[in-house]
Amino acid sequence: MRKFYSLLMVLAVLMGLVPGCAFAAEDKPVLYNAIITMNYPKSTTTVYAEMDRLSKKVATYRAGKKLQVTAVYPGWVEIKLGSDLGYVLRNRIDQVVPLDVKNTPPYGVEVYTYMTVITQDTPVLYKPDPEAEILSMLTAGAKIALLGVENGYAKLVHKREYGYIDTRLLKEIVPIAPSVELGDKDTPISVFCSFYSDNPDRINNLEVACVRLMRTMQPGESLYFNESVGPFNKSTGYLPAPILVDGVTKQGYGGGSCQISSTLYNTVLQLPGITILERHPHGASGAAYLPHGVDASSGDLDFKMRNSYDFPIRIEASCHDLCLFMAIYRADV
Q1: Does domain 5-98 have CATH number 1.10.1040.10?
Q2: What is the spatial distance between Cα 143 and Cα 326, in angstroms, rounded to a whole number?
Q3: CA gap 309, 236 in Å, rounded
Q4: What is the pTM of this model?
Q5: Which of 72, 111, 245, 259 has the smallest set of CB atoms within 10 Å of its CB?
Q6: Is 114-175 in CATH node 2.50.20.10?
Q7: DSSP alpha helices (H): ranges in 104-240?
Q8: pLDDT tens digits, residue range 197-206?
Q9: What is d(CA 282, CA 303) in angstroms, rounded to the nearest whole number?
């Protein structure tokens, strides 16, 4: 059962997913303890007054400094700063531990509550404003996972920031099952999408990996990503494309497959009945197509998971318009 779903929705308010909720620093509960990362021991980390590196700098911390995190955003965390609040880039923090392990979701988890299929040219905007910068342009057929709807705009995560879609451009917004008991073959219990660059060989690899990934998993069955989606070579349909190894970009067969494993990881993170057996980040900086800290490397390393539910699940994946979409369904109803 998706037992912490309602708790996640409450925490969504605290984590900034629901607008119109202003809190003084003393009123905001601490969700996680963390430290300034030790990956850059000789550099300092800036705390900003706003989630903008052009905003006022309110503090400077050295590696190892302890933090109290009150909210998590795609590219930033909000921290207590005495009686005030400050903001630190997510790639500058480490060792994030929830204070209440039972009721606090894993760091970086965001629950997607809707999905939609694009039916016309549709921009993903930087802000809920028709004049805002366009982050991506979608065309008919793209499937998109949505966090929710705010003031006429659908909200999603676009790489390391939020993106917005004018709901007047959407023909239908489909709810995700609010609990696994209410999911069925047509109503997913979890969805997620990520965005990628326009590289034909990399797109080919994503498409091949999507086909090889889709499956039904029985209760207790495990998925080893490299074994299931690989081997990553010419004979299985993969092409040479950029791959990320310890933060360094190289060419290799199957380049882009890590985005499949990372998108799958974010999809199953929303489901406590899926057990993560093995997961590795792409070095200290992570993968830029996702918020820092929620990527899952494949190829030289592996991503492994187990269906710990007492019912089978079905994994579906598709690529369209520079957007990779995944959904998980119950396969027994």
Answers
A1: no
A2: 9
A3: 31
A4: 0.89
A5: 245
A6: no
A7: 200-213, 225-229
A8: 888 999 999 9
A9: 12
